[in-house]
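Data availability (excerpt). The following record was deposited with the supplementary files.
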Amino acid sequence: MPRQWSVYLSGEIHTGWREEIRSGCRDAGLDILFHSPVTDHEASDLCGAWILGDEEKKFWEDRKGAGINAIRTQTLLRQSDVVVVRFGPKFRQWNAAFEAGVAAALGKPVVTLHDEELDHALKEVDTAALATAREPAQVVRILEYVIRQG
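Predicted structure:
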């Protein structure tokens, strides 16, 4: 009996790329459990202050939130079979680059997803990745291939 795969979807939160991958994998009949960071920007930024109390300085507010979010992120990255990291054209996703590095350090296969104009900026991240896709449908095809060939 085939096992269920675990895929972590990291990166930009302003488009529907995650749902495109989820629905494409569902349509392909793939048994995948998807994880992602908290994609509600306000909740992600303010969780530390909401839970541990307000801070006078933004640095410490951000630090509290980053620590709490890292509990989720590190746990789910460790549990994942594959990590997909999406870099969008509008914003610099420093957190996504960091998560790609953590995944690589953990020995997790990384697939990057970004437009061609980001190739130069992401050359080191792409070098650590095992594949670089340009569109979510390519990620679906990668997952379908690696899961079904086993």
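Summary of structural features: The CA atoms of residues 10 and 45 lie 16 Å apart.
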